[in-house]
Design a protein that fits this description.
Two copies of one chain form a homodimer.
Chain A (H helix, E strand, L loop, with lengths): L2 E4 L5 E6 L5 E8 L13 H9 L8 H10 L3 E6 L4 E8 L3 H13 L5 H19 L2 H13 L13 H4 L4 H11 L5 E7 L3 H12 L19 E5 L5 E9 L7 H12 L5 H9 L6 E7 L4 E9 L4 H14 L6 H18 L3 H15 L5 H9 L3 H14 L2 E7 L7 H9 L1
Parallel strand pairs in A: 2-6, 7-11
Antiparallel strand pairs in A: 1-2, 3-5, 3-6, 4-5, 8-10, 8-11, 9-10
Helix pairs in contact in A: 1-7, 3-8, 9-12, 9-15, 10-11, 11-16
Chain lengths: ~425, ~425
């Protein structure tokens, strides 16, 4: 059972012990990501995440790494569109140390000018690595196509040109505007003790002054396309279908719909595109949600000669979902979702992350049975109605990369779907 | 505590329960991988792994997927150079079902001619996807450079040209020659009961006739280079240093040496190449072992203008390791290795895989304390001596991909190291 404590300044601590574990996962999740950036500061949330590891008032970059690795732990961080997370996995007795290091790097980064120059180069290398990886490129483009000229559509890493000019003032500005105690959650699972975590958090985070963060720029899904022809082995094809936001009651429906469509080996897209036709190695569909919008993402990669067929077959599966969906498929998707949830809870890292995510969305952590009830409430008529809505509205965006010139236009795909 | 049972035909069952878990990881590990293939059948072990999911005498491809996913589980497989693994994660009560499906797909694949054609296309797509991913390409090339014209140096996926012509006879030939009970291990962890697993295994695998598998082609490390200049954002640079085989007492020394060099954020390569110089986003070193050989792999990616500096700095770190290695670094690497081991045991999937791997190498599962003793026995003088040997022997292979024309030749790197 999880426990939740809110400090007077709004900082929250949520934890759930896992009996029998010798290690713990502990981290700070901050409601600050790429979508909280202004256009001219795109990439700064991620730059900041990098700089956290480059030294504080008390610790050099090497000391940060050494203190955690001396006790056999590891520490890492990631930036998403709505959050930045700093987390560590350590043995039970080292939780106070890990929290001390995490608090230090989150609250006291030094922003040394020379270290900023070095890290700028590291990030430019990271951007280069992503640009060399079609599987990374395609999803950034899909996001851009669906949310053009909006914060939510901009890349997390930011554009190289802008990365080249950020300085300590930009980084301090973003911290000052976004890293308040009400924007932070300490989440932990495994070999943890809530009262001890709260005592540590009071010392480390209790004195932070509250901060009113401006609302993120609202997002509006757009039916757009980004396509770039390039000589690659594979034609990469990704679709986004407008979907529910975090708190939308339709989210579970959309997730089960996506699961039936492309959630596993028995899913429709896997069976049609891969098992029957041999058109692709990878294909999937999944529903992702943000604060105020969401989308179902569909992906498949194939050869140049098959990209038109693959795109049309994908749309045909979206249409067919309105016609012959079965109770057995919906029941299977529900079971997969519930079992996946249970298995995820058996890892301290994914359990801590889930606590932080749910608390951030709902202001509380819904119980497992509450979530399971919502999953069980999604029945065949609901999925059928959802599939009908997807087809009739045809709210699609697309990204295409590689030898994709033969692929139908977005308009043609939308017409085929709504026909 | 694990339990191990050997059936009269040589089939082995190894399992270790994890109290408190609701799910289990269970699989069959077969000592058959790319290095057991003749040159003219390269890729067949992996093709076979794919065909296992394409139907058996009793189940269609769809039924295989549905039976596991109906109960919320998942099933997957992988082929490495020395093993093929088929595994599932399911809730406790579904372990018998999962084992029945896995046994069926491993022992009774139908090899339907039409399904072979379809799957051939899927594998060609998988090869295309790998070729589009420099991070995949570079390590296949490194393996080829280090073991040229040897089974261990050939790609697991095989060459497209050969994939295009394999038929049911080729697949049956490989199964007949390699999939005997003495080559198979059933490994399981999580919510499992050893006696029940043994009873199931007796029914499913107990009647298999024993098989004498020819020894794999012996491997000989070669100091070779593969380099291809291509327009990419990053210059990818990978080195292999000849290292110990599985059972070589030096393996732990090599692993701790690799960890000090490039095992974490406090490692020498991470600190020098990334933290001090900002040359790369990704860099690491790790020791990998095979039956009769092994290698320490080092990787880094950087921009075209920095690839020569990066390659030389990497070599300089190998040299510096002979000079100023400290007790603190070695102690940290030992602690990281031990804590990593403990944390890995907290996941049923990695625990099952570890059981299978250790049993396959040693014919028994060494206890945790035995492994920890071996780690603790590696001291500074041992690491120092190992670093000296690496430098003086300079047994290196290299792979380079991208804008790499400015990079030094392998001979220049070897001379710089041994100088």
């Amino acid at each position: 059972m999880h426990r939740l404590t809110t400090l007077p300044n709004g900082f929250r601590i949520v934890s759930e012990p896992m009996p029998g574990l010798a290690s713990a996962s502990v981290g700070i999740w901050v409601t600050a990501g790429a979508r909280h950036e202004r256009a001219e500061e795109n990439g700064i949330a991620h730059f900041l995440e990098h700089m956290a590891f480059k030294g504080t008032a008390r610790r050099s970059a090497l000391q940060i790494a050494e203190e955690i690795e001396d006790v056999g732990g590891y520490i890492n961080a990631y930036t998403s569109r709505e959050m930045t997370a700093y987390y560590a996995r350590v043995l039970e007795n080292d939780v106070p140390l890990a929290l001390d290091v995490i608090a230090d790097i989150v609250l006291n980064p030094a922003f040394d000018a020379r270290e900023i120059e070095v890290e700028r180069h590291v990030i430019l290398q990271e951007i280069g690595q992503a640009l060399d990886t079609p599987d990374d490129v395609i999803f950034d483009w899909l996001q851009e196509a669906a949310y053009p000229e909006q914060a939510l559509g901009r890349p997390i890493l930011g554009p190289s040109g802008q990365i080249s000019r950020y300085d300590a003032g930009d980084l301090r500005g973003f911290v000052g505007g976004h890293y308040g105690p009400g924007q932070m959650i300490l989440a932990a699972s495994g070999a943890v003790h809530h009262d001890k975590l709260v005592a540590l958090a009071e010392t480390l985070f209790g004195q932070l002054p509250a901060l009113t963060m401006p609302a993120a720029e609202p997002a509006r899904f757009h039916c757009g396309e980004r396509r770039e022809v390039k000589t690659l082995e594979q034609a990469h094809f990704a679709l986004a279908i407008e979907g529910p936001a975090y708190r939308d009651p339709d989210l579970f429906t959309a997730q089960i719909y996506a699961s039936v469509l492309g959630g596993g080996m028995s899913s429709r897209l896997f069976q049609k595109l891969r098992e029957e036709r041999g058109l692709c190695y990878t294909t999937f569909a999944q529903a992702g949600a943000h604060e105020d919008t969401g989308s179902i993402t569909i992906y498949a990669g194939t050869g140049a000669e098959d990209v038109a067929a693959l795109a049309n077959l994908t749309i045909d599966e979206l249409r067919r979902a309105t016609e012959d969906m079965t109770e057995a498929e919906v029941a299977r998707a529900r079971t997969q979702m519930k079992a996946g949830l249970l298995m995820g809870l058996e890892s301290p890292s994914s359990r801590a992350e889930r606590l932080a995510r749910l608390l951030s969305i709902w202001g509380r952590v819904p119980s497992l049975s509450e979530t399971i009830d919502k999953i069980d409430a999604v029945d065949l008529p609901a999925i059928h109605a959802y599939a009908e809505r997807v087809a009739s509205e045809a709210r699609l965006s697309a990204a295409l990369y590689g030898p994709v010139s033969a692929a139908p236009s977005l308009e043609a795909l939308r017409e085929r779907l709504a026909a």
